[in-house]
Specification:
The complex is a heterodimer of chains A (338) and B (382). In chain A, 38% of the residues lie in helices and 20% in strands. Chain A has 338 residues and is an alpha/beta fold. Chain A folds into 2 domains: 2-122 and 222-328, D-Maltodextrin-Binding Protein, domain 2, CATH 3.40.190; 126-213, Periplasmic binding protein-like II (D-Maltodextrin-Binding Protein, domain 2). The longest helix of chain A is centred in the C-terminal third of the chain and has 20 residues, at 232-251. Chain A starts with a helix and ends in a 29-residue tail after the last helix. Chain B is mainly α. Chain B is 67% helix and 0% strand. The radius of gyration of chain B is 29 Å and the shape is globular. The chains are: A alpha/beta (338), B mainly alpha (382). Chains A and B meet through helix 1, strand 2 and strand 4 of A and helix 4, helix 9 and helix 13 of B.
Chain lengths: 338, 382
């Protein structure tokens, strides 16, 4: 681990130098966007039977490619593990990172990343068998809990139980697969990890309905994309593509009606500005006027992306929850395009 | 045996009969001295310890096998569009997943309409490998010459250019990627290893110490570190703007890595050759290279076969490490596929399939090495 940290530090110290070049020009010259994704995470990034990548994070890569290059398929996906993701980005092997990455201060400042707006608000949750009859995490006094060792979830768990003055018995495990096996064999009463991970794990059970996720979320995990320090124009492009997808849902622009709405300026100035029929917002970030239109046309607005990969109608069946628009009781609140 | 009775007749015990000289019929051997019973007695029940172990193993098989066969064959679903369909059909393994993903496992992300090129390269590879390994192969000589240019032909077929649509190497994946890395590593590490081993024994200090330095450096660093350096650090050392193909970097690193190990294996073989052999070659007026080629290396390589094949097998399995730099070998493809919501949670099937692939490949290499040892053994074998 120390060696990796050292290597990472060495990489980072070079990073500032290599990132000076205009990433936008590089991407355009290459004709392809290098997007760092996960090596496989249910609902967020996975190849299908024909080798085409699909998922929540993947669609954000495609949206950026559509905005910058005009073609959502001109993406080279760079699969990365949790350890290699930042190095790949900082060494220039990737232009942008969408890999369910929690934004933290140390990553932002110490690893020299610029985080894009949060695209998924996650947090640590609990899963219990329905038969246990537990309705709240505060009822878990004395429960045995499967927990991945060496993670922030372990610390969050200890904090939560200490604050509420109840006791638990930890069952340490290494991987999600191991946790699933232990939990189903009833070697622990509760399994805790990020809520989206719990939902994905539960979706793979023989009888998912026999298990419930408790309402308490005990930590903050704002997941978002990231780019290297040192190229503000490129960071702006990433930032505003994500903002445009979120704003599009708020403004009612969908994959189906975006072409119609973008033909000519309509009554709604917000929509006009976003789709380039009013003002000249694309050129401010080095793109043309139709940048947002192409992104929405390629993958749809935020809500459509969510519903397609992880929403209530998919096998993972995540509710919007915190990720609903601010008007609908969530905290998704994009800065306006104006 | 006493042969009192002289009465011949139908139904009489043939052992008790008396025959005239030359008329004795062929009799079956005594009980349990031939056939399956003899095999059982010699291999499974030859000593008390053996009997106990055989019985325990049989008991374990009896306990485990029915469950495994039920799960993997009798109660398994071989077709289906997703995991729920599998579940509806059978409670055991869901092989439909593997059959749906077989193309992905084989070709990775290689464009569908260009996959014939991979097939062609593979068929040519089989032809070359057969010609190299099997000395009674028809047209062996021209095929061996073709084998020398094969890497160029295969490279052209897979990467494209010069009339073929270019396919970038990041589209490589799955079994095809493993074969590309494995075969390249195996084909190039042996000659480089031989040169390094000879260099290490050289009398010329510069050659000797550069070989020693190279071998010791590579052996002192884990492969995963070299791959990591190749994938991420190299871009800092190259002039800005140069793009150096990622797969090529991996191929070079893997080849150099196994060449260093190979050199040490072959050095072991070289040191087993008595000095008299070299002196005899000198006495016959052979210069350095002819004496190596005709006298020393044939003997040294023969002794080193087990070690060489060991290194090959290690190299082949090490190809799974490329996942760390974002290339997906069969194991990586399997893991990534598991994240598909349609098939979420089918771990056992994927890992069994990948294990089977590696086992078949490595076992074949091991058997060939045994065959080669038997064929070449000239009485030194113990």
């Amino acid at each position: 681990m120390k060696a990796i940290k050292f290597a990472a530090a060495a990489v980072m110290s070079f990073a500032a130098v290599s990132a000076q070049a205009g990433t936008l020009d590089d991407v355009k010259a290459r004709g392809e966007l290098n997007c760092v994704v996960s090596t496989g995470l249910v609902g967020f990034a996975a190849p299908d039977a024909d080798g085409k990548w699909a998922g929540f994070d993947v669609d954000f890569c495609r949206a950026v490619a559509a905005a910058v290059l005009g073609d959502a398929d001109k993406v080279k996906f760079v699969p990365s593990t949790g350890k290699t993701r930042f190095t790949l980005l900082n060494s220039g092997e990737g232009d942008i990172l969408f890999r369910n990455t929690t934004e933290t201060m140390s990553r932002d400042a110490d690893l020299k990343l610029s985080f894009l707006p949060v695209n998924y608000y996650d947090g640590q949750g609990f899963m219990v068998p329905k038969a246990l009859g537990v309705a709240s995490a505060k009822d878990l006094d004395g429960a045995s809990i499967c927990i991945q060792t060496g993670t922030t979830t372990e610390l969050n768990l200890a904090d939560f139980f200490r604050i509420n003055n109840i006791s638990y018995e930890p069952v340490p495990i290494e991987t999600n697969e191991e946790a699933k096996t232990n939990y189903l064999a009833e070697r622990c009463d509760v399994y805790t990890t990020d809520a989206s991970g719990l939902a994905a794990t539960r979706a793979a059970f023989e009888a998912p309905d026999d298990h419930v996720l408790l309402p308490e979320i005990i930590s903050k995990e704002p997941l978002g994309g990231a780019v290297r320090h040192g190229d503000d124009q490129w960071a702006d492009i990433g930032k505003w593509v994500v903002n445009a997808l979120i704003s599009a849902e708020e403004a009612g622009i969908t994959m189906d009606n975006v072409a119609e709405l973008g033909k000519a300026a309509g009554d709604n100035p917000t929509v006009n500005r976003m789709l380039g029929t009013e003002g000249d917002f694309g050129s401010m970030i080095g793109l043309d006027a139709q940048w947002a239109m192409r992104a929405i046309m390629a993958v749809g607005n935020y809500g459509e992306i969510f519903d397609r990969h992880i929403g209530p109608d998919t096998a993972i069946a995540l509710q919007r929850g915190l990720n609903a628009q601010w008007k609908d009781g969530g905290i998704l609140y994009s800065a306006p395009i104006r | 045996m006493t042969t009192e009775s002289t009465q011949a007749g139908a139904g009489a015990d043939p052992y008790k009969q008396h025959y005239e000289p030359g008329t004795h019929p062929d009799l079956p051997p005594p009980f349990a001295t031939s056939g399956p019973l003899l095999w059982l007695r010699e291999n499974l029940f030859s000593s008390p310890a053996n009997i106990v172990m055989s019985l325990v193993s049989l008991f374990l098989l009896y306990k485990i096998l029915p469950g495994v066969i039920d799960w993997a064959v009798l109660d398994a679903a071989f077709t289906g569009a997703d995991r729920n369909e599998c579940r509806a059909k059978a409670s055991g393994a869901c092989w439909a997943f593997i059959s749906e993903r077989l193309r992905l496992f084989t070709f990775g992300f290689y464009p569908v309409e260009e996959r014939w090129r991979v097939w062609l390269a593979f068929v040519l590879l089989v032809v070359v490998v057969v010609a190299v390994l099997w000395e009674k192969c028809p047209f062996r000589k021209p095929l061996l010459w073709f084998g020398i240019v094969y890497p160029l032909v295969a490279g052209w077929l897979l990467v494209g250019g010069m009339g073929l649509t270019p396919v970038s190497t990041d589209k490589f994946g799955g079994i095809m990627l493993t074969l590309v890395i494995g075969v390249t590593g195996i084909a190039f590490s042996l000659p480089i290893g031989i040169v390094l081993a000879l260099g290490r024994q050289s009398n010329l200090p510069i050659i000797k110490y550069s070989c020693v330095g190279f071998i010791e450096f590579i052996r002192g660093v884990p492969l995963i570190t070299l791959l990591f350096v190749a994938s991420t650090m190299l871009s800092y050392f190259l002039p800005p703007g140069t793009s150096f193909d990622l797969l090529l970097r991996v191929l070079i690193m893997v080849t150099l890595f196994s060449a260093a190990y190979m050199a040490e294996v072959i050095r072991g073989g070289l040191q087993a050759i008595p000095k008299g052999q070299i002196e005899a070659a000198d006495a016959m007026g052979l210069k350095y290279w002819p004496s190596m080629r005709l006298i020393v290396l044939p003997q040294a390589l023969k002794i080193s076969i087990p070690g060489i094949v060991n290194t090959f097998i290690g190299l082949f399995k090490d190809t799974t490490l490329v996942i760390i730099i974002g290339l997906l070998d069969p194991l990586g493809i399997g893991r990534a596929s598991l994240a598909d919501t349609k098939w979420n949670g089918l771990t056992y099937e994927v890992y069994l399939f990948v294990a089977l692939f590696f086992f078949v490949a490595c076992f074949a290499m091991a058997r060939y090495s045994l065959y080669l040892e038997n064929k070449l053994h000239t009485g030194h074998k113990r």
